[in-house]
Amino acid sequence: MMNYTLSVFRGSESGEITQDQISRSLSSNEVLLEITHASICGTDDIYLQSSQALGHEGVGIVRKKSAGVRSVSVGDRVGVCYIQKVCGKCDLCISGWNQYCQERKRYGADQPQQGCLGDQAIWSAGTLIPIPKSYSSSHAAACMCGGATAWTVLTKYNIQPGQRVGVIGVGGMGHLAVKLSAALGYETVVFSRSFSKREDCTEFGAKEFHILRKEGLSDDGSASSRKFQPVDHLLVCSSAPEDFSMLMKLVATHGTIYPLTVSLHSVSVPLLAMIDRGIRIQGSLTASTDSIAQMLEFCNENHVYPKIKALSMNREGIERAFQSMKDGQVRYKTILVKDACDSE
Ligand SMILES: NC(=O)c1ccc[n+]([C@@H]2O[C@H](COP(=O)([O-])OP(=O)(O)OC[C@H]3O[C@@H](n4cnc5c(N)ncnc54)[C@H](OP(=O)(O)O)[C@@H]3O)[C@@H](O)[C@H]2O)c1
Ligand SMILES: [Zn+2]
């Protein structure tokens, strides 16, 4: 059986990024991809202190496939996402929620080699995402995780056109949440920690922009802050957990809060405030493969593109990408590109 050598980038106990090689063959239903584009997500930060091979959103070209694979052909351009392998048979896979596949934990534990930051990756054919012909690989790679997470919330939880949809935190995921929400016809309201992203958010389609600090909404004296109307749905896209007492004040009666921030810490929820106004709290993990494919079709048809900056897919580029994310400097997604010349 042919063995392939994959070059990957891993985290480490000290948080330093290391380069490593993995040697492995293709199992049944797997393909070998040449990775051309990958993006960095806030969740990668959690893996930086582990030996995990990094990267869970990217685009590659199928170079080899195992004998049984019919869904893709050699030469196809495909996307990879957080979900690496699914059983395809459990109730959740069948009902279009394969990000919650009942076999997922077992597969995760089986796959310490996961990661698409590198030159090649071996991925399960059943989780590859087709990319519309006229949608670029840079744009597709930048949508695969946070963008797809926002898309799932915006399309699968019964949000109605015209309803007020709030987005807290305008980063990689948040800026796509704003663009997608506006493109879907929702009245989109942004909450950010400073005014620096206000013009961008108006360009992305937001109708209102508010400053939100630890203590709550800041009254900057503008007409919109004086007349603030709570939102029906609130997507929390910040990189650190928010205070739920404060979130409750932003949401209308019978509204829903979607905490999307990944954190290993617990937060407390003011039960009385939640019960008193019938507020729902709905978690959501990334997206099913079907949902990601639908999002890319929608983005292609409606000209929705992430705002990206390209760096080279090498150790220096990856370190710069992580540092800019840590410093809050990214506007709004960094893409690592094979053979890029570190340009905008
Ligand atoms: N649920 C899922 O499946 C899923 C999928 C993808 C990502 N995530 C999680 O979503 C979060 C955001 O990811 P991302 O890729 O969008 O990260 P990001 O690009 O770093 O953006 C995070 C945004 O949060 C705000 N922020 C920064 N520091 C903050 C702080 N100390 N407290 C509160 N807000 C802060 C900033 O927005 P402003 O400047 O506008 O305030 C920043 O742009 C991460 O926790 C990530 O793990 C979850
Ligand atoms: Zn992610």
TrEMBL record:
The keyword Magnesium does not apply. One of its GO terms (cellular component) is cytoplasm. Belongs to the zinc-containing alcohol dehydrogenase family. GO terms for molecular function: alcohol dehydrogenase (NAD+) activity; metal ion binding. It comes from Penicillium malachiteum. Its cofactor is Zn(2+). Pfam families: ADH_N, ADH_zinc_N. InterPro entries: ADH-like_C, ADH-like_N, ER, GroES-like_sf, NAD(P)-bd_dom_sf. The lineage of its organism: Eukaryota, Fungi, Dikarya, Ascomycota, Pezizomycotina. The keyword Oxidoreductase applies. Residues 11-336 form the Enoyl reductase (ER) domain. PANTHER family: ALCOHOL DEHYDROGENASE 1-RELATED, VACUOLAR PROTEIN SORTING-ASSOCIATED PROTEIN 11. Keywords: Metal-binding, Oxidoreductase, Zinc. This is Alcohol dehydrogenase.
